């Protein structure tokens, strides 16, 4: 038989059910995150969704501590999913479903406690949720199960990406956690996930899976083989869990997971995994239809040996560009990273032919090139920005020791083979999709000023922080960078104003108060934006950064 799977389907549909964010070892105030995947209790009051008191209680327990993880690419990916043939399962394979293979090796005990029972009841009442999650999991599930089995770790861990991100490698959440396993930047780097302009290993399913299993192994050892403690620490940080255990010991209390004083999200996090494991193990008894996934490999990894344009690679592999990028979500741009990893995940039936074809193509022919003649005013950073690459790449390609270039000099620059909007899963295009035209709404751009927060900006433009974060490819708790431009959508014509960054050249006779009055801003703000000492005089020709509401400016004349 043949079974179809959808390489991009792990990215479909919005929002996942409860999850976590990894934290650094010494981060005693670890930020916590969670997910919501069309989970009604997270979107509406429980009392609005259920009639019985028991159902309301279950709902409230199930959503306790849940904070949202965002799945930003739903509309884009809904339109682009394509099928790939999965090889036929061999007759000698007795277990034909990866989930069945996993559940046969489950190790963890399922306690009869309210926190687990409430999560179980919620999942049982929402079978459609598991259908969506399993679609996302299909391309990667067999690989993850294999890696867990190789390490002889509890097979319940195959369920952890459900709790974390609903198996979405493009998911992000509060505290800058990203990827299927929801790593924050620091912990990602700690466990081998590079994060550069070209590449983010937290979204790379291969790198992040290896990093997650390494981290869990480390935690299990730290907590003397107690997997529930290890899972709690994965969610909220090992320091936090260790302190909770020590506090209970001092007080003469039990130190099992359910007795510890932990954050709300962590108290819900471990029960979710246990509830899922119990449902999967006893799905027939619960009459729960858990969608099957063929127990055969469906992806393979090919070593490219060098940087490759993703459009070129997709064409060589005989698959769509979106399909290739969906299997390789770690790449931020139009090409793989020049510094590696030099590998691509491909459908298993395409891998050998791709590797053979690539071996016959010179490394320089794997990218498209332009010859740029340096003009007056050019710099390496300006050229890099123009061609959507980096200064480092231009210097390497042209064997430049420094950043000095001269007018008339010829510079070779690698460029995208196709128009940038063809690379729809690149970082720029994912953000552009979020900020694309919305028929009845007006787009406003706000430049972040000193002291701005998402809450302040959302309040100013009368939108929610959740909306504002989503429109700008962020999570609600992310830190804003001074000078960053945010997009806000509002119904009809807005009177909220449009803030833009201006560069003002100081003239003879100018003072801070005079400039502030002219641009309808505060002297204190000008000082903050430019790190000025207000006791010193301004100098003619001095450049000042100003963040100005141009609507008010035009009205004041």
Explain this structure:
The structure is a single chain. With 557 residues, this protein is α+β, with helices and mostly antiparallel strands. The protein folds into five domains: 3-81 and 97-281, Orthogonal Bundle (Lysozyme), CATH 1.10.530; 299-351; 368-416, Roll (Membrane-bound Lytic Murein Transglycosylase D, Chain A); 435-491, Membrane-bound Lytic Murein Transglycosylase D, Chain A; 499-556, Membrane-bound Lytic Murein Transglycosylase D, Chain A (Roll), CATH 3.10.350. It is 40% helix and 11% strand. The protein is built from 24 helices and 13 strands. Strands 2-4-5 form a three-stranded antiparallel beta sheet, with no helix packed on it. A two-stranded antiparallel sheet has the order 1-3. A two-stranded antiparallel sheet has the order 6-7. The longest helix has 24 residues, at 127-150. The chain is globular. The protein starts with a strand and ends with a helix. 42% of the residues are buried. Residues 1-44 and 75-82 have low confidence and may be disordered.
Named at the architecture level, the CATH assignment of the largest domain is: Orthogonal Bundle
- List unreliable stretches of 5+ residues: 1-44, 75-82
Mean pLDDT reading = 80
Question: From the alpha-carbon coordinates, what is the Rg to the nearest angstrom?
Answer: 26 Å
Short description:
The chain has 557 residues and is an alpha+beta fold. It is 40% helix and 11% strand. Helix 7 crosses helix 10 and helix 14 (310-317) packs across helix 15 (321-327).
């Amino acid at each position: 038989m043949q079974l179809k799977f959808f390489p991009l389907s792990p990215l479909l549909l919005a929002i996942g059910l409860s999850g976590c964010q990894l934290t650094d070892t010494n981060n005693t105030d670890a930020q916590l995150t969670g997910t919501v995947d069309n989970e009604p209790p997270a979107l509406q009051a429980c009392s609005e969704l259920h009639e019985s008191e028991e159902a309301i209680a279950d709902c409230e327990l199930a959503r306790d501590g849940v904070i949202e993880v965002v799945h930003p690419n739903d509309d884009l990916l809904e339109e682009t999913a394509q099928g790939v043939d999965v090889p036929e399962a061999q007759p000698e394979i007795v277990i034909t479903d990866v989930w069945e293979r996993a559940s046969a090796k489950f190790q963890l005990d399922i306690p009869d406690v309210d926190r687990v029972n409430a999560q179980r009841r919620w999942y049982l009442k929402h079978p459609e949720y598991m259908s969506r999650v399993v679609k996302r999991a299909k391309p990667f599930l067999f690989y993850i199960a294999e890696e867990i089995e190789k390490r002889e770790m509890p097979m319940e861990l195959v369920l952890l990406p459900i709790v974390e991100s609903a198996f979405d490698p493009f998911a992000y959440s509060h505290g800058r956690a990203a990827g299927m396993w929801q790593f924050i930047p620091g912990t990602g780097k700690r466990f081998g996930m590079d994060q550069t302009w070209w590449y983010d290993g937290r979204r790379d399913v291969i790198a992040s899976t290896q990093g997650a299993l390494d981290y869990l192994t480390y935690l299990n050892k730290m907590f003397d083989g107690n997997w529930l403690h290890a899972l709690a620490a994965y969610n909220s940080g090992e320091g936090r869990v260790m302190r909770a255990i020590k506090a209970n010991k001092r007080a003469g209390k039990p130190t099992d997971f359910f007795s510890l004083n932990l954050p709300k999200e962590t108290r819900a996090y471990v029960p979710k995994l246990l509830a899922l494991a119990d449902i999967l193990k006893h799905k027939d008894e619960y009459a729960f239809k858990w969608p099957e996934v063929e127990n055969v490999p469906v992806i393979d990894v090919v070593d490219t040996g060098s940087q490759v344009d993703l459009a070129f690679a997709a064409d060589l592999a005989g698959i769509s560009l979106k399909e290739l990028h969906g299997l390789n979500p770690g790449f931020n741009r139009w090409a793989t990273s020049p510094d590696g990893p030099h590998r691509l995940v491909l459908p298993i039936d395409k891998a050998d032919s791709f590797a053979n074809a690539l071996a016959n193509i010179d490394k320089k022919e794997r990218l498209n090139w332009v010859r740029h003649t340096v003009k007056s005013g050019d710099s390496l950073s300006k050229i890099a920005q123009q061609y959507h690459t980096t200064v480092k790449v231009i210097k390497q390609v042209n064997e430049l020791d420094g950043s000095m270039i001269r007018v008339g000099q010829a510079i070779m620059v690698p460029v995208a083979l196709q128009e940038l909007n063809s690379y729809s899963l690149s970082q720029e295009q994912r953000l552009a999709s979020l900020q694309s035209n919305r028929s009845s709404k007006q787009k406003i751009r706000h430049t972040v000023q000193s002291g701005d927060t998402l809450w302040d900006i959302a309040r100013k433009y009368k939108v929610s922080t959740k909306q504002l974060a989503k429109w700008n490819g962020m999570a609600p708790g992310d830190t804003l960078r001074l000078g960053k431009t945010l997009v806000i959508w509002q119904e009809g014509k807005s009177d909220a104003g449009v803030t833009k960054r201006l560069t003002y050249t100081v003239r003879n006779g100018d003072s801070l108060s005079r400039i502030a009055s002219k641009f309808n801003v505060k002297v204190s703000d000008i000082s903050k934006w430019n790190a000025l000492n207000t006791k010193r005089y301004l100098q003619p020709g001095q450049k000042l950064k100003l963040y100005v509401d141009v609507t008010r400016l035009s009205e004041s004349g």
